[in-house]
Amino acid sequence: MAEDQDKCPECGAPLTDIVTTQSGRQLKRCSTNVWNKDTRQSEGCGYVLWLEVEPKVLDEECPKCGAPLVFAVTKFGKKMKKCSKGGWDKETRKATGCDFVEWQNGEREELNEKCPDCGAMLVLVTTNGGKRLKKCSTAGWDAKEKMVTGCQYIEWQK
Ligand SMILES: [Zn+2]
Ligand SMILES: [Zn+2]
Ligand SMILES: [Zn+2]
To answer: Please, which domain of life does this record's source organism belong to (predicted)?
Structure first.
């Protein structure tokens, strides 16, 4: 077992409770680290311990091998589904097992605006690349037919 996950390795002070960032990552920081509002700088020890976010097992099967999929968040806050059989061999620095990965789309926010084409409500979507667009809430994707469904109104945001 790892012994000292609760003490700062740099100064020995206790670490804080687990903090979850906006992107879904988790960390503990040194409790001597405080944000000084006047100088707008953090003071004290700057040690941060990033925690591995436990992958959540999903009720979905890998299309490649049929193993359960897990939901994971990368270091950069990107969300993905990947195969639970997939892994990383640190010694050979190669991916092992099943390599199925499905990146998840960004945020989706319901808007109080109507689609000029069909009158349904619009949604604001942020893509993985950080681009924002408004699109019709009836728009969808038929994975079986590989076709766009519903209304195709899109308005890119600046
Ligand atoms: Zn410290
Ligand atoms: Zn798989
Ligand atoms: Zn529409």
So the answer is: Bacteria
**Tokens coding 38:** 């006047």
pLDDT digits 0-9 by tens, 111-133:
999 999 999 999 988 776 778 89
Where exactly are the structural domains of the chain? 1-52, 56-103, 108-156
Q: Which residues contact 14 (CB under 8 A, 6 or more apart)?
A: 6, 7, 8, 31
- Protein residues within 5 Å, CB atom, of ion ligand 3: 115, 117-118, 120, 136, 151, 153
Exposed, middle or buried by CB within 10 Å (0-12, 13-18, 19+), for 38? exposed
Tokens standing for residue 98: 């099943």
Residue 138: exposure state from Cβ atoms within 10 A (0-12, 13-18, ≥19): middle
More confident position, 54 or 72: 72
Average pLDDT over residues 59-80: 86
CA 69 – ligand 2 centroid, Å: 7
| pLDDT, tens digit, 9 for 90 and up, residues 78-94 | 778 899 998 878 888 88
